[in-house]
Amino acid sequence: MSEDLIMKGKADSVDNHVGKRLKMRRILLGLSQQDLGEAVKVSVQQIQKYEKATNRIASGKLYSFSKLLKVPITYFFDKDEESNNFDFVEDQVSSEAEDATVSERELLSLVRSYSEIKEHSLRKKVLDLLKAMSTNV
User: Fold this and answer.
1) Would you tell me how many other CB atoms lie within 10 Å of the CB of residue 133?
2) Contact 64, 40 (CB under 8 A)
3) Which of 39, 74, 105, 124 is deepest in the core (most CB within 10 A)?
4) For residue 111, what pLDDT is reported?
5) Residue 103: φ, ψ to 5°
6) In sequence order, which residues have a C-beta less than 8 Å from that of residue 22 and are 6 or more positions away?
7) Cβ–Cβ < 8 Å for 68, 36
8) What is the pLDDT of residue 84?
C-alpha cells in the first residue's frame, strides 16, 4: 500500500502549496480572511486553517475560491516546472528568509502595483529595469 493512501486525509506538500497560493491571491486582491470567509461561507478560523494547510480544501470550496479570486483552478497548483516540486515555495522562502531585507508585505505591494500597470510594454520595461537593477547590486 502506498504512503499516500496511508496518509489519507492529512495535509501534504500539495495542500501546503495550495494554502500559500490562496493566501497570496487573497492578499494581492486586498481581501481580509474575514472577507474571504464570508464570501464562501466559512469562518475566519477555517480560512486560517486552509492557508496554513492544517485543513485540506475540498474541491467544491476550491472551485468557489477560484471564482471569487478570479483565477483558474489551476492557479492553486502552479509549481516550479524546473524542479517539478510543489515544495519550492516553502523551500525558497525559508532559505531566503534568513537574509531577506524585503518583507512579504513589501513584496506583495510591489506585485500588486506591477499587476495594476495595464500597458504590456510598460510592464515589460518596469520588469527589465528591476532585473537590471538587481544584477548590478
Assistant:
1) 9
2) yes
3) 39
4) 82
5) -80, 165
6) 50, 51, 57, 65, 69, 76
7) yes
8) 45
pLDDT value of position 87: 45
Amino acid at 97: A
CA–CA distance, 3 with 61 (Å, rounded to integer): 26
* Spatial contact of 58 and 91, defined as CB atoms under 8 Å apart: no
For 62, other C-beta atoms within 10 Å of its C-beta total 18
What is the model's pLDDT at position 101?
53
Helices 44-51 and 33-40, packing angle to 10 deg: 110
Extents of the domains making up the chain? 3-100, 101-137
**Residue numbers in the chain where pLDDT is lower than 70:** 1-9, 79-104, 136-137
Q: How far apart are the first and last CA of the chain?
A: 52
At residue 85, the 3 state secondary structure works out as: strand
The pTM (predicted TM-score) of the whole model is 0.59
* pLDDT computed for residue 18 by the predictor: 93
- Going from the C-alpha of 130 to that of each of 80, 84, 114, 126, 133, the distances in angstroms are 21, 27, 11, 6, 5
∠ CA 83-84-85 to the nearest 5 degrees?
85
Report the sign of the C-alpha dihedral through residues 30, 60, 89, 122, in that order. negative
